[in-house]
Amino acid sequence: MQPSDEYLIQKAREEDRSTFEELYNRYKKAIFGYIYRLIGDKAVAEELTQETFVKVYMNLARYRPEGKVSSWIYTIAGNLAKNELRSRGYRKTVSLEVTVSDDERITIGDMLADESFKPDDITQNEELKQDIQKAIQMLPVKYREVLILCDVQSLSYDSVAEIIGSTIGTVASRLSRARAAFVKIFRENFGDRT
Fold first, then answer.
1. Biggest alpha carbon–alpha carbon distance for the chain
2. Over the stretch 22-68, which tens digit does the pLDDT of each residue have?
3. Which of 13, 24, 107, 144 is deepest in the core (most CB within 10 A)?
4. What domain range includes position 153?
5. Is 17 helix (H, G, I), strand (E, B) or coil?
6. Does residue 93 belong to any structural domain of this protein?
């Protein structure tokens, strides 16, 4: 049985480096994926992933067990990514006044997990993934963040609310708007492949 995140944090506070390394290995891929999808640049995402864990390590004493360790780490990563976007002067707006019927709802996770492609379609599948990433990048940050956390990272509404410092209702509302905007952006820019 794996030790809990809280146990690893406690041991890392006692300067047990191997437990911090275990925590790092447990979350590095997910945090990299989250930052990469927010930023859209692998090199910057790698850098910010490292910076996230440096901040986690430097702030071990500040961690309060009222919240989940994973939410704390995602919050640090999200803040670093948003700071990076601000420093680049990133500003995109997309009209979110879109009505999408129930049969048009689709999640990013569904699109990425679709295994209906034949082996001959690997190139098309790779193009689809790139187009999905481009469409995600076109979303405003507050919608992109919720879409990635819920549909790509498969986190619960509770966890996402804790990470972004908001309510579950806000998460649900943003996710609904983000999905509708994503579908609209994807169809307008990359055709109707859904």
1. 54
2. 999 999 999 999 999 888 889 999 999 999 999 999 998 888 888 88
3. 144
4. 102-190
5. helix
6. no
